[in-house]
């Protein structure tokens, strides 16, 4: 048995490297199919993780405290801030107040959402104030300056430096200078948001020591589920959401994209398998006479089958190995040289994980072997007489 395997391996190696064109075409098909699986899935994972990270870093905390369901604001903000300061797992926090209003410029007006925050605290929790298309960020001492989302700026034809009239839901009306235009990549946020300092919003809205939400940044965001009950107990609140709960829709959307990327990879792999199978089958047809002679000399059907299966194994080993290397290098290149997404205001790159190599190797190698099964069966069933006579 071992002798047959060694002999089959000898004939398969000799046959493979004898026809260089067939060898190149088959190995290239396997190489690109394998590299495609690694790169497409790695790039998709990178986009998903970058999107999740960007959303968490730019707009939400690791844990977010909300008012009770029947209330609009969190009361006793000062006390809660003191308690947050005493919790060592909390790296930073940022209170926000949300309100509605109308922003007007010349003859144009638009309903807007006011997001009031403390710029100093916000900067320690999120990167929201870094998402500027133009201008500069506001600071805590600004009393007559605002930031506006880029679509709102387009709708009202506003530019940095322009002065617009803001009517608050409280009835107060003031003129503010547009200090900067912000773009986060979040459709709702970018459509109609005005950002202003928390102190100024409190004065105009007539509120004090309250917040619509408190964003909390932990030392490790993956510990959010563990610290959620701890914060609920220490702060006396019952409405806290983790970052995973906040972006549940995005995570479901990401899973759908992963499925889509797997379909793309599967299509490429099937195409490569068909190409490999056809090329091996053509190779079998061209070697019918040699197969007939081998059978006439005593070679059994099982031995002929082993020869062509061995060829598929060798093609798989060479093609998958090189494909793994190319896929790995492609991902590492995009990790080293990410591209900047102007919409999301974030860097996008592929992300490498060892499971990408394991999965691509297993799937590509298995498919390559399966692609060689039918040609190997056809080769083993070649009729001796017809093969020798070239029929």
Tell me the layout of helices and strands:
Layout: H1 2-18, H2 20-59, E1 63-65, E2 74-75, H3 77-86, E3 90-105, E4 108-117, H4 119-125, E5 132-135, E6 145-149, H5 150-156, E7 163-168, E8 173-182, H6 187-192, E9 193-197, H7 198-205, E10 210-211, E11 213-218, H8 224-235, E12 240-242, H9 243-246, H10 248-286, H11 288-296, H12 301-336, E13 339-341, E14 346-348, H13 354-380, H14 384-388
Parallel strand pairs: 4-9, 6-8
Antiparallel strand pairs: 1-11, 1-12, 2-10, 3-4, 3-7, 3-11, 5-8, 6-9, 7-8, 13-14
Helix pairs in contact: 1-12, 2-10, 2-12, 2-13, 10-13, 12-13
Q: Explain this structure to me?
A:
It is a single chain. This protein folds into two domains: 2-56 and 250-388, no CATH class; 61-246, no CATH class. Helix content is 58%, strand content 20%. It contains 14 helices and 14 strands. The strands form three sheets. Strands 3-4-9-6-8-7 form a six-stranded mixed β-barrel, surrounded by four helices. Strands 2-10 form a two-stranded antiparallel sheet. It has a two-stranded antiparallel sheet with strand order 13-14. 39% of the residues are buried.
């Amino acid at each position: 048995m071992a002798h047959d395997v060694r002999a089959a391996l000898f004939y398969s190696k000799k046959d493979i490297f004898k026809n260089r064109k067939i060898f190149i075409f088959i190995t290239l098909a396997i190489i690109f199919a394998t590299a495609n699986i690694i790169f497409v899935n790695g790039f998709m994972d990178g986009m998903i993780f970058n999107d999740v990270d960007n959303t968490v870093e730019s707009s939400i905390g690791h844990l977010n405290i909300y008012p009770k369901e029947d209330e609009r604001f969190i009361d006793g903000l000062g006390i809660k801030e003191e308690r947050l300061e005493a919790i060592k797992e909390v790296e930073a926090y940022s209170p926000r107040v949300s309100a509605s209003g109308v922003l007007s410029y010349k003859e144009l007006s638009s309903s807007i959402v006011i997001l009031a925050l403390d710029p100093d605290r916000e900067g320690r929790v999120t990167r929201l104030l870094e998402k500027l298309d133009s201008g500069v960020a506001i600071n805590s001492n600004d009393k007559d300056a605002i930031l506006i989302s880029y679509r709102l700026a387009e709708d009202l034809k506003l530019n940095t430096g322009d002065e617009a009239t803001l009517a608050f839901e409280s009835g107060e009306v003031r003129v503010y200078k547009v200090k900067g235009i912000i773009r986060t990549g979040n459709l709702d946020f970018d459509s109609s948001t005005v950002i202003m300092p928390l102190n100024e919003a409190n004065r105009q809205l007539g509120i004090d020591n309250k917040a619509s939400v408190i964003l909390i940044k932990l030392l490790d965001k993956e510990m959010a589920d563990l610290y959620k009950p701890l914060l609920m107990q220490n702060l006396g609140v019952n409405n806290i959401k983790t970052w995973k709960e906040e972006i549940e829709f995005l995570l479901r959307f990401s899973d759908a994209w992963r499925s889509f990327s797997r379909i793309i990879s599967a299509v490429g792999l099937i195409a490569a398998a068909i190409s490999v199978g056809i090329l091996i089958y053509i190779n079998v047809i061209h070697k019918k006479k040699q197969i007939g002679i081998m059978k006439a000399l005593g070679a059994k059907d099982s031995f002929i089958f082993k020869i062509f299966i061995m060829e598929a194994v060798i093609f798989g080993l060479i093609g998958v190995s090189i494909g793994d290397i190319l896929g790995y290098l492609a991902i590492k290149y995009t990790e080293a040289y990410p591209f900047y997404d102007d919409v999301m205001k974030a860097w996008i790159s592929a992300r490498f994980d060892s499971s990408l190599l394991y999965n691509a190797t297993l799937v590509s190698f298995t498919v390559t072997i399966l692609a060689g099964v039918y040609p190997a069966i056809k080769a083993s069933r070649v009729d001796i007489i017809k093969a020798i006579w070239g029929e």
